[in-house]
Amino acid sequence: MPYVTISTVRGIFDVAQKQALLQRVTDLMVEIEGQGNPDFRRNVWVKIEEGEPASWSLGGMIPTPDMIAGNFGALDAAGRRVARVKA
Q1: 11 Rama sector, left if φ>0, alpha if ψ -120 to 50, beta otherwise
Q2: pTM here?
Q3: Which of 17, 25, 72, 79 has the maximal Cβ count within 10 Å?
Q4: What is the pLDDT of residues 15-50, one digit of tens each?
Q5: Helices marked H in 1-87 — which ranges?
Q6: Roughly how many angstroms between the first and final C-alpha of the chain, as a whole number?
Q7: Which residues contact 33 (CB under 8 A, 6 or more apart)?
Q8: Across the strands, what pairs with 45?
Q9: Which has the closest alpha carbon to 65: 8, 7, 11?
Q10: DSSP letter string, 7-25
Q11: Which of 34, 30, 32, 75 lies closest to 53, judged by CA?
Q12: What percent of the chain lies above the pLDDT cut of 70?
């Protein structure tokens, strides 16, 4: 029974992106470990762990939510990606 954990910074993925990620990782595990057997799907656990930006470091720098939003786009209250404005 495989357990897959994906760690990411909170706010990077919206709800639809998380669902797609969970589905595609599950599909991949069924294809590879389950050798394509569709019954194997019920044995695949996939978890997305989201951590606060202050708990992460990128190149020795702790990214702020604004830095992350600037690189990836922010999420609005409904969890939709807000378009980035390039200077």
Answers
A1: left
A2: 0.72
A3: 25
A4: 888 999 999 999 999 999 999 999 999 999 999 999
A5: 15-32, 65-72
A6: 48
A7: 2, 40
A8: 3
A9: 11
A10: EEETTSS-HHHHHHHHHHH
A11: 75
A12: 79
